[in-house]
């Protein structure tokens, strides 16, 4: 069983080629190109497909997937390998659903907090009964730096560079420190909050910036920048 899992994010499109539960290849596209994806499907003899899209539907892509593969419709009504207790299930991002599905695959017996570090920082909590209870969303690194520039008169627009010290000694290093160590403190504090309420909790990191923070967290059980793809494949195989 060969599957293609497509995660269309805010900045990039991530593609995973799976054979059953094994990830064979990861492809990152800066620009979504339906013809390129069709070639990938033909070359890899893909049978099944699933797509997560944080933006509006890509109708040409959906039509191609329906023609070339057996496309699993993915929405808040799709059968999931966990109990979704989110109060507004129809508004829950498909990428967030996929992260929880991946967490179930990685660990079936513990409380799990999945922290995704990308455009936004998202926290997803799954208890040991495999009940998804929600989480939190806050701005990511680039969003914080862009906001400081946009909402002030004099702060510059910066690209992120990892700070060498928590104490900045220039405007740029203060902004970099505020963005990075602010998120790090938020992560540590939220882990403490979940453990004080629910007990021992496993921590799983994902997203493009996950490795920047992993080295600062003693509790990180697992880190993978493309965890969403594993979750999409889990949902696909669970339904098929």
Description:
It is built from seven helices and eleven strands. The chain has helices at 34-44, 59-68, 94-106, 141-150, 171-198, 210-214, 227-239, and strands at 2-8, 13-19, 22-29, 48-53, 70-71, 83-84, 111-117, 120-126, 131-139, 201-206, 220-224. The chain has two domains: 2-71, Nucleotidyltransferase, domain 5; 83-232, Nucleotidyltransferase, domain 5. The model has no long low-confidence stretch (mean pLDDT 93). With 240 residues, the protein is of the alpha/beta class. The strands form two sheets. The protein has a six-stranded mixed β-sheet with strand order 6-9-8-7-10-11, sandwiched between helices. Strands 3-2-1-4-5 form a five-stranded mixed β-sheet, sandwiched between helices. It is globular and about 55 Å long. 38% of the residues lie in helices and 28% in strands. The chain starts with a strand and ends with a helix. β4 (48-53), α2 (59-68) and β5 form a beta-alpha-beta unit.
In short:
The chain has helices spanning 34-44, 59-68, 94-106, 141-150, 171-198, 210-214, 227-239, and strands spanning 2-8, 13-19, 22-29, 48-53, 70-71, 83-84, 111-117, 120-126, 131-139, 201-206, 220-224. It is an alpha/beta fold and 240 residues long. It has a 6-stranded mixed β-sheet, sandwiched between helices.
Helical segment tally? 7
Task: Note the gap between the termini.
Answer: 10 Å
Q: CATH superfamily membership of the largest domain, which one? A: ATPase, nucleotide binding domain
Q: How many individual β-strands?
A: 11
Looking at the overall shape, the CATH architecture of the largest domain is: 2-Layer Sandwich
How many domains? The number is 2
Helix content estimate = 25-40%
Q: Segments where pLDDT lies below 50 for 5+ residues? A: none
User: Could you say which structural class the secondary elements and strand pairing correspond to?
Assistant: alpha/beta
User: What radius of gyration results from the CA coordinates?
Assistant: 19 Å
């Amino acid at each position: 069983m060969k599957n293609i899992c497509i995660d269309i994010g805010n900045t990039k499109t991530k593609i995973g080629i799976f054979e059953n539960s094994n990830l064979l290849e990861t492809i990152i596209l800066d620009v979504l190109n339906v013809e390129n994806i069709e070639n990938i499907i033909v070359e890899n003899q893909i049978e099944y497909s699933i797509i997560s899209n944080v933006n509006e539907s890509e109708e040409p892509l959906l039509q191609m997937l329906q023609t070339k593969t057996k496309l699993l419709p993915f929405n808040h009504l799709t059968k999931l390998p966990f109990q979704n207790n989110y109060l507004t299930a129809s508004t829950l991002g498909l990428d967030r659903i996929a992260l929880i599905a991946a967490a179930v695959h990685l660990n079936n017996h513990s409380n799990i907090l999945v922290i995704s570090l990308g455009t936004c920082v998202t926290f997803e909590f799954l208890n040991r009964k495999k009940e998804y209870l929600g989480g939190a969303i806050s701005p990511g690194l680039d969003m914080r730096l862009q906001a400081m520039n946009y909402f002030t008169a004099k702060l510059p627009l910066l690209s992120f560079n990892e700070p060498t010290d928590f104490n900045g000694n220039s405007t740029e290093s203060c902004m970099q420190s505020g963005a990075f160590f602010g998120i790090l403190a938020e992560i540590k504090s939220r882990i403490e909050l979940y453990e004080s309420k629910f007990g021992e909790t496993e921590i799983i990191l994902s997203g493009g910036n996950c490795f920047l923070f992993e080295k600062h967290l003693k509790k990180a059980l697992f880190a993978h920048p493309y965890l969403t793809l594993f979750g999409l494949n889990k949902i696909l195989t669970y339904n098929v």
